[in-house]
Every structure is written in structure tokens, then in C-alpha cells.
Design goal:
The complex is a heterodimer.
Chain A lengths: L7 E4 L3 H12 L5 E4 L15 E2 L6 H15 L1 H4 L13 E5 L2 H16 L5 E3 L1 H7 L10 E5 L3 E2 L2 H14 L3 E3 L4 E7 L2 E7 L2 E4 L3 E3 L5 H7 L7 E10 L9 E4 L4 E5 L5 E5 L14 H14 L7 E12 L6 E4 L6 E5 L5 H18 L13 H4 L11
Helix pairs in contact in A: 1-6, 1-9, 2-9
Chain B lengths: L12 E3 L4 E2 H9 L5 H8 L11 H13 L18 E2 H10 L4
Antiparallel strand pairs in B: 1-2
Helix pairs in contact in B: 1-3
Classes of the chains: A alpha/beta, B mainly alpha.
Chain lengths: 384, 101
């Protein structure tokens, strides 16, 4: 018999929802229900590129990512997860192909270093010292942070879900939210296809479907789905440590601990949609860019390609916090490609906000109201 | 269920690409991973070179037995392209050779 009332209902058991549910329970919230329409990590989390980086161009992103990395570093013990989440700090190498981009990178490094993130600038030759088969063609410079890295999104989500369950969180899988009841601008209940859960607090962690969930509470939330595609190669011996990322080419590529290379490129003109089918066009574009940037890797075989959704917000930045005019409705969505890497700290901050009304790191600039106020948060350093 | 005598034991390899044994599959089902996709996500079974060509049927049979459902009612994972591993350089070259679309 599942619960018919809760202190907090968290919608979506991707890594963000799982982290929020766990942190609420860890902070002492007794009755948390986590609702998932399929199974944990079945949506965007399980389709992501799995990278974790701290190199950003805005102060809040640097700080959030830095604190997330600190949690990733201790995650296996923190969540008491035996298989391990496979966090590996093999670095991110960001490559610049124009003076404009290089100037931005240098500004980023200044900001990052002021926030105790250990990033250095490299000449093209020094970058090749880290990735020997990186093409030097038109390369202007690079930045490198060894503490950035990679984790397993499935294991990370399962670790949070299992730890949350141990603390008494009820996880309802194969359960869809079909309505949210409000009265006098206050949340009253979440209605699912399995029943009704009375509650005054909802956290919307539904990824690309967050706009639909918000509309059930009468809220117009500008989050939409945007397809992004990835491929993975056969595994080979370890030969490339860091994630290589080029904003100029809208490209990223990393070798996983398993030995396979995972890589993606942005596709221009991708429409708003919930389409998660793979395309041949992506394969062509990916192959073309890989040959340009990391030529020897083109001799590897693709074993699988897939697609997933970015939960895009208008400024490609997360939407965090309570969402007026409905009291008790919180958002943790709109991550636009960075949900996995930020999830550990987002869980902590949402839990603080819900239980105490305050957060240990300022996130008020990331509220949903910024779009109406015209205060978009512009992050210069994103793919896609 | 199966017409041939079942000679599998716990050490039988179910996913040959990723070296996953029958014992491992049964342990995951007992832990609550109740679909081929969930087992794939937690263990990598079916993520290797052959993309589950052999193991997904074997895992489906284990799920059917453990959950008391018919094998045809076990949901198959999405079949992802390419159907066989393809060298990336072949794809990159392919563009030039292609005719009008």
C-alpha cells in the first residue's frame, strides 16, 4: 500500500530528483515520496554524456560545480554504495579555435582560480602533451582542470535512490503524475495514475517534462525538450585521459573507464520536441568533426548511438527554487545539459531551501521569475 | 518454458561481450532490477560489441521465470543503430561517395 500523504513529493527519479529526495531525508524530513514514471535514470540522466566539470564562465556555475565535485569525490562512502559510482578525475581539456574564444577562456580561468578551482592555460603544444593525438590545426590554446572528470550516471542515480530508500523515502516507479491540486495558491495534492498523495510541497525534477508538470499546477514554466545525440565506440586500451571539449565545434569526446569512447556534437536547428530517436545525420556530423579534432579515433568502430533530451531553459541555465505564485511548488530543472554534474549539490541546496527557507550557496538568481524580470543568466561556456 | 534441457549453471556466461554470468543476472533480478533495460543499465549486459544479440533473449527468459510471466511479455530494449559496429572513418568518407538524397 503506497502512501497517501507526504511532507514532500519529488517528481522524477533522474539523478536530480534522486539527489533531492535523498538530501531531504538525510536532513530529517520524515515522509518523502519520489515518483518516477518509468525507472530511475530511464530518462535524460541515463542518456547523458556523463562528464563532470568545474570550468564555467559564471561565478555561480563554478561554485555549484566545485561543490558538486566535492560530493562526487566522497560519493561511494557518502551514499554507502558498493558497486561505486565510478567517479574518476581524469580532467577536462577545453580547446579554443579563435582569439575571441581564447580571450573568454582566459577570463574563465581567472574567475575559476579566484574560486579555488585549479585550472591552467596551455599552449597547443602543451595540450598535445596531455592528448597526444589532438590535431593542432587552427588550435589557439586550451585550458585544463585535472579535478574535472566523469562518473557513471546509472550507478550515481541508483546510489541516491537506494540511500534514499534506506532513509525511509518511498520510491514509486512506473507511476505517472496526472494532476496537481492547488487551493488559494498553495499545493494540496499530487495525483498519479496510482492514487492521490496529499502534500503541501512538490519538487519538479521532471527534466524535459518539467513544463508539463508545472502546467498541472497552473504555472507557465519555459522549459522544453531538445534532442541531443551521442555515440559510443568499441572499448580499447586507455589512451586518452580527459574529456576534450570544443565549443567552436559544439563537440565533446571522452574515453570511459570501460575503454570505450563516448562523444557528441550539437546539431544546428534542432527543434523543440520530445524526440529521442537517433539520426544518421548525427553520425555523419560526428564522424566529420572527430576526423578534424582527434583524427586517430576515427579508426574506432561505433557500436551504439542514442539520443536524449536537454531540459532547455531560455538562457540554458538551471531553474532552482520556489515558483510563485504557487506556494510549495519548487523547481530543479532546466539544466540544459548540466543536470548530471550539478545534481549532488542541487539536492543539498533544494533540501536546505525547502526545510529552512535559506541556502548555504546563493541560488536566488536562478529562480523561475528571472524570465519575467528579463534577468537572464548568460553562461558563455556551454555546448549546444 | 524451454524445450531443450537447460544445461546452464551459475557460472554460465550470459553476456559474452561484457562477461556477465547467470549468477549475476539472477542476483540483479533478486535485487529488484525487473527489466532488460534496468539490468543493462546496472551491469552493462547488452552494451557490448554485439549489442545484446545473444544475451537479451537469455535475460528475457530469466526474467520470465523469476517474475512468472510469459517470455513474450518481457519488454525488449530499444534496438539502437548501427546494427553492426562501423568504423567512424568509413562514415566520414561515406559522405563524399553518396549520391543525391
Amino acid at each position: 500500500m503506497s502512501r497517501n500523504s507526504a511532507d514532500v513529493v519529488v517528481i522524477g527519479a533522474g539523478v536530480v530528483g534522486a539527489s533531492v529526495a535523498f538530501e531531504l531525508a538525510r536532513a530529517g524530513c520524515k515522509n518523502v515520496v519520489l515518483i518516477e514514471k518509468a525507472t530511475p535514470a530511464a530518462g535524460s540522466t541515463g542518456r547523458c554524456g556523463a562528464g563532470v566539470r568545474q570550468q564555467f564562465g559564471t561565478r555561480h556555475n563554478c561554485i555549484l560545480a566545485r561543490e558538486a565535485v566535492r560530493i562526487f569525490e566522497k560519493m561511494d562512502e557518502y551514499l554507502d554504495y558498493r558497486p561505486g559510482v565510478e567517479f574518476r578525475q581524469s580532467g577536462y581539456l577545453m580547446v579554443a579555435y579563435s582569439d575571441h574564444e581564447w580571450n573568454q577562456f582566459k577570463k574563465n580561468v581567472e574567475l575559476e582560480r579566484s574560486l579555488d578551482i585549479d585550472v591552467k592555460t596551455l599552449t597547443p603544444e602543451e595540450a598535445r602533451g596531455i592528448v597526444p593525438f589532438l590535431s593542432l590545426d587552427r588550435l589557439v590554446g586550451a585550458t585544463f582542470c585535472q579535478e574535472d572528470g566523469h562518473a557513471n550516471p546509472f550507478h550515481t542515480t541508483f546510489a541516491y535512490v537506494q540511500a534514499a530508500r534506506r532513509l525511509g523515502v518511498e520510491v514509486q516507479t512506473h507511476t505517472s503524475v496526472i494532476g496537481i491540486e492547488t487551493s488559494s495558491d498553495r499545493i494540496q495534492a499530487v495525483v498519479t495514475d496510482k492514487g492521490r498523495i496529499s502534500t503541501n510541497t512538490v519538487v519538479n525534477c521532471a527534466g524535459a517534462r518539467s513544463g508539463e508538470i508545472a502546467s498541472m499546477a497552473g504555472i507557465d514554466l519555459p522549459v522544453y525538450g531538445e534532442r541531443h545525440q551521442i555515440l559510443i565506440t568499441e572499448p580499447v586500451n586507455a589512451c586518452m585521459g580527459p574529456m576534450v571539449i570544443s565549443f567552436h565545434h559544439d563537440f565533446y569526446c571522452q574515453q570511459t573507464p570501460h575503454g570505450s569512447f563516448i562523444m557528441g556534437v550539437g546539431m544546428p536547428g534542432e527543434p523543440k520536441s520530445f524526440n529521442i530517436r537517433s539520426s544518421v545525420e548525427f553520425l555523419d556530423e560526428m564522424a566529420r568533426k572527430l576526423v578534424t579534432i582527434l583524427p586517430p579515433l576515427a579508426e574506432l568502430r561505433v557500436v551504439r548511438q542514442w539520443a536524449g533530451l536537454y531540459d532547455r531553459s531560455p538562457d540554458a541555465q538551471p531553474i532552482l527554487g520556489e515558483c510563485p505564485p504557487v506556494h510549495g511548488f519548487y523547481n530543479a530543472n532546466g539544466f540544459s545539459g548540466h543536470g548530471f554534474m550539478l545534481a549532488p549539490i542541487v539536492g543539498v541546496l533544494l533540501s536546505e531551501l525547502i526545510l529552512t527557507g535559506k541556502t548555504s550557496i546563493p541560488i536566488s538568481m536562478l529562480d523561475a521569475g528571472r524570465f519575467a524580470r528579463g534577468e537572464l543568466v548568460l553562461e558563455p561556456t556551454v555546448v549546444g | 518454458m524451454s524445450e531443450a534441457p537447460n544445461r546452464a549453471d551459475e557460472n554460465t556466461i550470459i553476456c559474452r561481450c561484457e562477461d556477465i554470468t547467470l549468477a549475476e543476472i539472477r542476483r540483479l533480478i533478486a535485487q529488484g532490477y525487473h527489466s532488460i533495460d534496468e539490468i543493462k543499465r546496472v551491469s552493462r549486459a547488452g552494451m557490448g560489441q554485439c549489442q545484446g544479440r545473444t544475451c537479451r533473449q537469455l535475460i528475457a527468459r530469466e526474467l520470465a521465470n523469476a517474475l512468472g510471466v510469459k517470455i513474450e511479455d518481457v519488454e525488449m530494449p530499444t534496438f539502437r543503430p548501427p546494427s553492426r559496429p562501423v568504423m567512424i572513418s568509413t562514415i566520414a568518407k561515406g559522405e563524399e561517395g553518396e549520391g543525391d538524397e
